[in-house]
Automatic annotation (TrEMBL):
SUPFAM superfamilies: Six-hairpin glycosidases (SSF48208)
Name of the protein this chain belongs to: N-acyl-D-glucosamine 2-epimerase
Entry keywords, A to Z: Isomerase
BP GO terms, sorted: carbohydrate metabolic process
InterPro entries: 6-hairpin_glycosidase_sf (IPR008928), 6hp_glycosidase-like_sf (IPR012341), AGE/CE (IPR010819), Ssp411 (IPR024705)
Record's signal peptide: none
GO molecular function: isomerase activity
Family membership: Belongs to the N-acylglucosamine 2-epimerase family.
Length: 606
């Protein structure tokens, strides 16, 4: 095999300008890990400014020379030629802001506008211009928003759509989004919910298959990893959308469903002897050790132990302030901090376990592999929990993940974050090998962005801010679909959209607005309230009679105590003063109907 690359190829370089020779048309870029590349601009490349969804193309080709100032971060896409040791000819430049220190995704309304566009896309794709009728909902949505022939309605994908719409309402106050969220919640309760009065629990069908006016219930999972079983994560994510809606409306029926589903978790998934939650139970006996479960019998994993927190539990606590949910969160993160680190063997956490917490390194597709985004998701959620109840082990583990992950999970050449990699290097390997490919999934970029934003917003650090900006830059440059709307599922390592198979879809078993909307909601919160010190508005529409003592809790996330306070409140578009600014609560008027509440939050100067 030749020692050097002897063929041409197209690729991307993400880097910081160190020098630009206008006369020679030569640019030097330094990547995030300190390597320098010389880039030729002699071929008159195009240049543009990063743009949000629904924004027009912003040409910067006539401003290249004045914008290439030292220190500016940008993306260069071009062609490598194997000449004179290697030559890279730029074909496209993407600038992240007008000034060298400007990043457009830090604009106060950037993420709010993005979630509006997402909500409009999915509302149009599912319901067209007609009424919001969830009998028309389909799990599979094509690239442009068209529906496929599949008539399966999965519980979790409806819940994820509901989450996105409720989040869009929280940020915008647009009634059309809340209508979708509430109707979707009602549809889930009517068609997917099972109330087991004898066991005093609620569980959720995998989904229903619709054929005209008839529907066939799908009790167990149809997904290959979980086939013919009841997986914990499907029950968890059935709550995601309704609970986010509950934050807006205070509908006590939703809370009752959540409490009954948590009783299901504690009665059938919880391991009282070894601790933690099993990943699957069988559909007949609701047993975690039944032989019909095969390799899923008596197993525990990240989804069954940790996904409670981001999917529904943090939001349930935010809406209620109930200590029992805080205790559940503490148990969750104590378990993660105790069981998941495996740094004597790998820079990645362990994600799959047998009943006794010994490591399961031969399970199905995962084997002894790391999902990069799960590591980042742990760091992000540990810092959220640390704001509720600070523990050294939470912050230490989150910071350790933040420090370790860029070198082993990110693409230091092109930007962005990888998918699944081997947890251990073999022999003389210098890099952790990709399990299947070097593509980058939209949801894993979300985990990186939120992890480094909250790390920077809580413990500070230039490195955390740099990683947050680089991750946001890659996502907003390459994942936004400016032709059809919404975001791509996967891109190639270079940032080019990957549009084959199920990864071509905008709606699937794995994708339905949840991660993209969660990213918008919390990026807006962290960028504005924690990082850049800007005020934000949030919208609610509760019935005061549903809330204990008519108290509405308006904290947007688990943020450091005292970091944010209420600046003002409007009810039905009129100023209102009965609120506790520091407790982030509003005592609603004594009325018998729903009210529209607009709350402005202000960061407290550090």
């Amino acid at each position: 095999m030749a020692d050097a690359v002897t063929f041409s190829f197209s690729d991307t370089i993400a880097g910081y300008v160190t020098r630009f020779d206008s006369g020679a048309r030569l640019l030097r870029l330094k990547t995030s890990d300190g390597r320098e590349f010389e880039v030729s601009l002699a071929g008159a490349p195009s240049a543009e400014l990063v743009r949000n969804l629904d924004e027009p193309y912003i040409d910067a080709s006539g401003h290249i020379d004045e914008m290439l100032s030292p220190g500016r971060f940008l993306f260069v896409y071009g062609v490598h030629y194997p000449e004179s040791g290697g030559r890279f000819d730029a074909k496209r430049l993407v600038f992240l802001g007008r000034g060298a220190e400007d990043y457009r995704f830090e604009e106060p309304s950037w993420w709010i506008k993005q979630i509006e566009s997402l909500a409009d896309f999915y509302k149009r794709a599912q319901f067209g211009d007609g009424p919001v009728d969830f009998t028309e909902y389909r799990t599979e949505i094509r690239l442009g928003g068209d529906k496929t022939a599949s008539h399966v309605q999965e519980t979790d994908t409806i819940s994820r759509l509901v989450y996105g719409m409720a989040s869009a309402y929280l940020l915008t106050g647009k009634d059309e989004y809340l209508e979708v969220a509430e109707r979707g919640t009602e549809y889930l309760r009517k068609h997917m919910r099972v109330v087991d009065s004898e066991e005093d629990v609620v569980f959720w069908y995998h989904g229903i298959s619709v054929d005209g006016d008839s529907e066939r219930k799908l009790f167990t999972s149809e997904f290959s990893d979980d086939y013919d079983a009841i997986p914990m994560y499907e029950q968890i994510y059935a709550l995601a959308g309704p609970i986010q809606t509950y934050r807006v409306t205070g509908d006590v029926r939703i809370k009752n469903d959540a409490d009954a589903t948590i009783r299901l978790f504690d009665k059938f998934f919880f391991d009282p002897e070894q601790g933690g939650y099993y990943s699957h139970i069988d559909p007949i006996l609701f047993s975690a050790d039944h032989e019909s479960l095969g390799e899923n019998a008596e197993r525990k994993n990240w989804n069954s132990v940790g996904d409670h927190a981001p999917a529904y539990l943090i939001n349930l606590y935010l809406a209620t302030g109930d200590q029992k949910y805080a205790d559940f969160l503490e148990y969750t993160f104590d378990t993660i901090a105790d069981k998941f680190p495996d740094y004597e063997n790998s820079p990645f956490v362990q994600e799959r376990f047998f009943r006794d917490w010994s490591h399961d390194t031969a399970h199905s597709w995962q084997q002894n592999r790391a999902v990069v985004g799960h590591n980042l998701k742990i760091a992000w959620n540990l810092m959220r929990m640390n704001s509720l109840k600070a523990k050294p082990e939470y912050e230490q583990l989150a910071k350790k993940i933040g420090e370790i992950m860029p070198a082993v999970g990110s693409d230091v050449q092109r930007g962005g974050w990888y998918d699944v990699v081997e947890r251990i290097k073999d022999g003389d390997q210098e890099a952790y090998r990709f399990a299947w490919h070097d593509r980058k999934a939209w949801w894993q970029q979300e985990q990186a962005i939120l992890a480094y934003l909250i790390l920077n917003g809580t413990v500070g650090g230039d490195a955390n801010l740099r990683e947050a900006r680089q991750a946001q830059a890659f996502y907003n440059t390459f994942f936004l679909d400016h032709d059809e709307g919404a975001v791509y599922f996967n891109v190639l390592a270079s940032g080019t959209p990957y549009l084959l198979g199920t990864e071509r879809l905008k709606g699937s078993h794995s994708m339905s607005m949840y991660h993209s909307a969660e990213l918008c909601y919390l990026s807006a919160v962290y960028n504005n309230l924690l990082v850049n010190g800007r005020e934000m508005d949030f919208h609610f529409q509760p019935d005061p009679t549903n809330l204990p003592d008519r108290v509405l809790r308006v904290s947007p996330d688990l943020l450091p105590a005292g970091s944010v306070r209420i600046a003002s409140v409007e009810i039905d578009e009129k100023p209102y003063t009965d609120f506790d600014a520091d407790a982030l609560t509003v005592r609603l008027p004594d009325v018998q109907s729903r009210v529209k509440v607009k709350v402005r939050l202000r960061p407290v100067t550090k």
